[in-house]
Amino acid sequence: MSKSDSKSQVKFMSAMFKGKEIFKPLNTGFIDERVSCIREYVANIFFYTKNGHTIMIDAGYNYEKLAEKMSWLNIDYKDIKEILVTHLDTDHVGAIEKDSEGIFKDSTIYIGRIENEYLTGNKRRKVFWGLYKLPRVNIDNKKVLIDDSQVIFIGDIKIEAFIVPGHTWGHLVYLIDDMYLFTGDTIWFGADGGYAFLNTLAEDGKLQIKSLKRLEEILRKRNLNLKIITGHTGWTDDIDFAFAHTDEICNSLRRKPKVHDPKAPYDGFDESGDKKENIEKGLPKILQK
Fold first, then answer.
1. Which of 86, 97, 141, 164 could form an S-S bond across to 211 if both were Cys, CB 3.0 to 4.6 Å?
2. What is the CATH number of the domain that holds 81?
3. Which ranges constitute the DSSP H helices of the chain?
4. What is the strand order of the sheet 108-112 is part of?
5. HSE (CB half, 13 Å, CA atoms) of 58?
6. Pairwise CA distance, residues 151 & 164, whole Å
7. Considering the domain boundaries, does residue 282 fall inside one?
8. pLDDT tens-digit profile of 224-276?
9. Metallo-beta-lactamase domain spans which residues (predicted)?
10. Residue 266 CB partners (closer than 8 Å, separation 6+)
11. Total domains, the chain
12. pTM score above 0.90
């Protein structure tokens, strides 16, 4: 998707979702000593740091302030050698598309083998119940294709991937070091817990619900102490909250009592509250000097 297409999408999404209490992105800052994030409009991208090595999870929009906001976190974009991609929607891969600034052109991207078919042209991304085809995403980076339940190591960082089709056909979530689950657009957190992500943007809503139930089953069997981190609605360490409504998908066209969150910004694309000085006030104690 071109930069102009990406900008058009931002304008359309902003107008469509104003006042719907849908998106609740985290402001740029730190979740804990290992995980930090950048806010790009309604989306978050994440960084995971262990023993001095930082990897990136998703690549956000084709976003002009990305390098600047990375500096707020004391992360140099030149140090990012690996990027885990949950799926290929442009709000998750914009910074590695062909006509981006190219700051990650030498990074290796990790992507699901099925999701890669959107890049090859074997699949076309469709939204609004298959009625609208999104422009094709183009990426030239070196790729490593990932299969369901595959475990890889980047340095001493353990990464396990699970396929959760529905939002896209090859969407992956990443379990890192058995402590952090990066879910991309698998789960949407409402005021009363997690649902399958937005109905209007799903390739197959019923499959999305089925995938979410499978993911919950896998995680509960392991009995892990997890931080479950979403691409658009924050994070939780309460697994019961995260999987409270696995049999439902968020209806993004209407609001229901106790579901949509009145704490969500009226316009999720308004970034006026995302400031460097707010990060410094909210640093975890372990990161403060």
1. 164
2. 3.60.15.10
3. 3-17, 66-72, 90-93, 117-120, 205-222, 239-242, 276-281
4. 29-30, 35-40, 43-50, 53-57, 82-84, 108-112, 143-146
5. 32
6. 16
7. no
8. 999 999 999 999 999 999 999 999 999 888 766 567 788 888 888 889 999 99
9. 42-232
10. 18, 19
11. 1
12. yes
